[in-house]
Design a protein that fits this description.
Layout (H helix, E strand, L loop, with lengths): L2 H6 L18 H10 L1 H24 L3 H12 L5 H19 L12 H13 L3 H15 L12 H11 L6 H9 L5 H5 L3 H11 L6 H22 L3 H9 L10 H21 L3 H18 L6 H16 L6 H23 L1
Helix pairs in contact: 5-6, 5-8, 5-16, 6-7, 7-8, 8-12, 12-14, 12-16, 13-14, 15-16
Amino acid sequence: MTALLVLVQPAAAHVRYVSDDDGGPTGLALLADVLADPLNAALLGGGAVTTLAVALAYLRFRPARTDLAVLRETLLGYRDLVPWMLRLALGLPLVGAGFAGYYFSPEVAWSMRVFQVALGFFLLFGLATRAVAGVGLLAYLVALPFAPDLLLAFEYVPGFIAIVLVGSGRPSADHMLKQVAGTPGTIYGRFDPVYGLADWFDGVVEPYKRYAPTVVRAGLGIAFAYLGIVEKLLAPGTGLAVVEKYNLTAVVPVDPGLWVIGAGLTELALGVALLLGVFTRGGAAVAFVMFTLTLFGLPDDPVLAHVTLYGMVSMLFITGSGPLAVDNWLRETSRDARTSEGEAAVADD
């Protein structure tokens, strides 16, 4: 999207997963040192100005309007796959975490193998999906005060909430059993103990399903902002160790501090944009590219720890920003402007 973004992508990651070095300068000291170099200041300032200029130019001229309209229409046809995507995005890493012996985040070395593997498989099968997601959310929140490092895996919170909202979808065991139980004359339907309760809960949740993209967008925004501020801008020592460990200055020959500050600012900006719902699909695409480059650039970064993020940004690319987003206001403003221009043209004719 911008030169700054391209510059820092391989350094944008859960740096605690690949380095334990917590030493180094404070965030303010590193920022002062980086900005003291005119070249660094020009690169950071130029990246910010370029990003703003590109955004304003897009809003003014709306290039490829027809292409984007076709893309959005096509993505609408994928929305029925979103529940399945979310189940995979949380189920797979939960199974992996259980077998690997950590609790949600690789930084929390608690051994709850059977519990996490069971959660993961229930989500993958789509069996008792909403209840299992609720249990998973509770397990995360109860443990959080005792293991603050769980904030590194904060994406599980919006993920679980979104699954509660959208349900299991299909293909899933829930869908199959519901179809059988809801068909008159079936033997299973006579004995199913939860069909009525599940059907009732579906009706309760139905009005709120449309907020699932909002929950995911806000949760990812918080996660990105947290990683940018806490892991890089306030405590840059680990990030500097990662730059040195992987010799990232040989990839792009700039000051190591610029790598860390640039990565932190990029993650913070992306987090704020997601929270506000500005250019959501574009932000999701950028995040997907960042994850991919990080995994290829940092070979010992745990892949499973990023699967949830992959799934959630993919969901946002399909659904867009959802309700309560600046994108919706921008879209309405653009539509009103085109209508006014059309009416003016008719009047001139």
